[in-house]
Design goal:
The complex is a heterodimer of chains A (287) and B (299). By secondary structure, chain A is α/β, with parallel strands linked by helices. Chain A is built from eleven helices and seven strands. The chains are: A alpha/beta (287), B alpha+beta (299).
Chain lengths: 287, 299
């Protein structure tokens, strides 16, 4: 069995897609910028298509928990057909199945990158993503039962994903001991993308090519991909959301998020916010 | 001694120890028996293993934990071993899809992932992956133009004297709430297909045709990011490849029945036109889709 899966794990709106666009540009074989709608960068752990193709089951006949039971088998098999560094994006928290078995195929796992972003900015960006208010987004980020793609009314291209709360999500990935994890802060990616993306390549032992690296940084810059989305759209954008790549700045919440929601997020997530320097040890906001 | 029920579906007569209200009652000598009993631990011989299933050319075992295990052999026998406290809908939903599909493969038939309607005594099929709207378009055309439903999800093709035949399946369709709303159907009294899967079982009786038909057209539906419905006739080798990709549970059987499939698809395509329809994945394009299909039918 290959040990080649690299998890690109994050709570939504934390830099995961940005990194996938960088990696697609860095690893593709041509000098052309990657098409954001055809990223050559592995798959998504909630992809119904990958699960059905690798198990032969029709999962519209299954419950969400039964679908979860298929995912370990499906993605192990999927990874067998990929080379070194089979990247899988996921918003799922790192959780076991209710019966204690692994939902994640750890025997096929090489490592994980866990993206972390100031939860106050996540709330604003996540609200845009879900076409809701920042206050409601903040509530979801404090809800340990929160799931994506949980609608029971319609067919969904993705299976249900259990996220836990914002800090529950990050803890689930960073505390587990099954495989190595590199934590990358979104704010560091913004401030110095070269350092952040270089650290990812080093962590995964991907050879460094300076010419390719510079091109990939340019082709995955926020402004460039935001413009591309305007021109050709982005297929990963939810139907109700106006644009996937919205503002992308750090501290943007200050103009938008209510003090009540700020307090709620700080109260709920202060330990993890302190750990990743969004709050000082004395509890003051750092951004 | 269990009560024996007799039903017809997919052009076959089934005797069954469990009730299958989705199927039509029938009389006559059964070609397939469905019994309750012990499912063997393993199948013998040259087998392929998948996730909780084993398959060979003439045998198949699948275990839907924690509901039931199924054994299918020689195209004429299905044994069901339900788990304690399993819900009958949970057992039945697997029986009348994956399990019977493998039985149809074992009989050398071609089960397509397709719904269908009867148009001027011929069959018009809608083939697509799950979730694209096969059931919805079939029922929408049924309501709009009065074409009776002949199949939902699985449509069986066989051949007689070198000519393809389309067999009706059974009168019920599986619909998400979204489709129920689009079709203007009341969900009052509708049952979910399973206890915890919130998709409805909708029975279209009496507007169902039971029998055999010559094929007229196969529409293959796919989603598109564009905003309009697009239709193109598929010809040549692509026609074969497009239909082969929509064999029901192809990934379970892989190449086991490749020669049977080749012959039946080739026969079908000699007698039926094939169109690919791209439909917008967002928004409601059902009326536009109905018009495009009706125009192609009347062409």
């Amino acid at each position: 069995m290959k040990k080649n899966i690299v998890w690109l794990a994050s709570y939504p709106k934390s830099g995961n897609t940005w990194c996938r666009i960088f990696l697609s540009n860095y690893l593709n074989k041509t000098d052309e910028p990657s098409n954001i709608n055809k990223l050559e960068i592995g798959g998504i752990f909630s992809s119904r298509q990958i699960i059905e193709e690798n198990t032969a089951y029709d999962i519209s006949e299954l419950t969400a928990n039964e679908c979860d039971e298929l995912r370990n088998f499906a993605f192990s098999k999927w990874a067998e057909n990929h080379e070194e560094n089979a990247f899988l994006k996921t918003h799922d928290a790192y959780l076991l199945l209710p019966n204690g078995e692994n939902m994640f195929p750890i025997e096929s796992t090489k490592a994980a990158i866990c993206f972390v972003r100031n939860p106050l900015d996540v709330a604003v960006s996540f609200a845009n993503h879900m076409a809701t208010t920042p206050e409601k987004a903040a509530e979801k980020m404090c809800d340990s039962e929160f799931c994506l793609a949980a609608s029971i009314k319609k067919y969904n291209q993705q299976v249900r994903q259990r996220l836990l709360s914002w800090s529950g999500h990050i803890n689930s990935w960073t505390i587990q001991k099954e495989f190595p994890v590199l934590v990358v802060r979104y704010e560091d990616m913004l401030e110095n993308p070269n350092n952040s993306f270089k650290s990812i390549l080093d962590f995964l032992n991907i050879p460094f090519d300076s010419e390719k690296f510079i091109k990939a940084i340019v082709n995955s810059s926020f402004e460039k991909i935001k413009n591309t989305e305007k021109q050709i759209g982005f297929k990963e954008k939810p139907a109700k959301c106006n644009s996937f790549f919205n503002v992308g700045k750090s501290g943007y919440y200050k103009n938008i998020l209510s003090q009540e929601s700020i307090n709620k997020i700080i109260n709920e997530h202060s330990a993890v916010m302190k750990k990743y320097n969004y709050l000082s040890p004395s509890g003051d906001l750092m951004i | 001694m269990n009560t024996i029920n007799t039903y017809t579906a997919f052009g076959l007569i089934f005797s069954s120890e469990i009730e299958i209200p989705e199927f039509l009652p029938a009389i006559g000598e059964a070609q397939v028996s469905i019994t309750l009993g012990n499912v063997p631990a393993n199948i013998s011989g040259n087998l392929t293993e998948g996730f909780r299933f084993q398959i060979s050319k003439n045998e198949f075992i699948i275990r839907f934990k924690p509901w039931a295990s199924f054994y299918v052999c020689n195209g004429d026998k299905i044994i069901i071993e339900p788990e304690q406290d399993s819900d009958e809908r949970d057992v039945r939903v697997f029986l009348i899809s994956s399990v019977i599909a493998i039985l149809l493969h074992q009989r050398g038939l071609l089960p397509l992932h397709a719904s269908g309607i009867k148009v001027n005594n011929k069959a018009v099929l809608f083939s697509a992956n799950s979730g694209i709207g096969k059931s919805t378009i079939s029922l929408a055309l049924n309501r709009k133009y009065g074409y009776p439903l002949i199949a939902d999800d699985i449509t069986v093709i066989s051949e007689k004297e070198g000519r393809p035949i389309v067999h009706s399946s059974f009168p019920s369709a599986k619909l998400w709430q979204e489709s129920v709303d689009l079709l203007g159907i009341s969900n009052e009294g509708l049952q979910y297909i399973r206890k915890d899967v919130f998709k409805y079982r909708y029975d279209n009786r009496p507007d169902f045709f039971n029998g055999i038909l010559d094929p007229l057209i196969v529409f293959v539906l796919e989603n598109t990011d564009d905003e309009i419905v697009e239709i193109n006739e598929v010809k040549g080798i692509e026609k074969f490849n497009v239909l082969r990709a929509h064999i029901f549970r192809l990934r379970m059987v892989n190449e086991l029945y490749a020669s049977e499939h080749f012959k039946l698809i080739s026969n079908l395509l000699n007698c039926a036109k094939c169109y690919k329809i791209l439909r917008p994945k967002n928004g409601n394009s059902l009326d536009e889709l109905c018009s495009v299909v009706q125009s192609a039918i009347l062409k």
